[in-house]
Amino acid sequence: MIAALDADDPRLPAIARWINETWSDSHGYSIAETSAWLRDIAEGASQAAIIAIVAGQPIGVGLLVENDLPEPSDCGPWLSSLLVVPEWRRKGIGARLIETVAGTARTLRTDVLYLHCRPGPLPGYYAKRGFVDIGPLRFGQSEHRLMRRPLTR
């Protein structure tokens, strides 16, 4: 099942932990800070935290955020923190999370969705889901790819 994460969902700290463990090299936030960020997203009118759930347990997450860069940006909104637990990968969960985030962005009358990812297989994964690589992006100490996806209504 794919659903929006509520700000008071008891699974929120576990999801914050996944995010921190996955991207610990690109930010130094505590679990409490990431949990607070997720609560803000879940409560926001123009943002959303989408989770995939099996047997009551979260197995994936995808975020719609206004800005996914450390500084203000003219780009946005963003698909952020797409993550599926390893045992559920290659089963279409990530694609469903992407489509749900894109659908949510569409309802907010957004014409385009952005993301950034590390070079390697990820740009190809996102290209298969409608994103176009529009160039390099320096994020912290690492090089990322900036991608965008037009959202047709």
Secondary-structure-based class equals alpha+beta
Largest sheet: 4 strands, antiparallel
Give the low-pLDDT segments.
none
Cross-sheet strand order for the largest sheet: 1-2-3-4
Relative strand content: 25-35%
Percent range for helical residues?
25-40%
User: Cα-atom Rg, whole angstroms?
Assistant: 14 Å
Which outline best applies?
globular
Helix count equals 4
N-end to C-end Cα span: 24 Å
Q: Count every beta strand, where a strand is a DSSP E run of 2 or more residues.
A: 7
What report would you give on this structure?
The protein has about 150 residues and is of the alpha+beta class. The protein has helices spanning about 10-20, 30-45, 95-105, 120-125; strands at about 1-5, 50-55, 55-65, 80-85, 110-115, 130-140, 140-150. The chain has a 4-stranded antiparallel β-sheet, with helices on both faces. A hairpin with a 2-residue loop joins β2 and β3 (about 55-65). α1 crosses α2 (about 30-45). The protein is globular and about 40 Å long. About 30% of the residues are buried. The model has no long low-confidence stretch (mean pLDDT about 90).
Protein topology:
Blueprint: E1 2-4, H1 12-22, H2 31-43, E2 48-54, E3 57-65, E4 78-84, H3 93-107, E5 112-117, H4 121-127, E6 132-139, E7 142-150
Antiparallel strand pairs: 1-2, 2-3, 3-4, 5-7, 6-7
Helix pairs in contact: 1-2
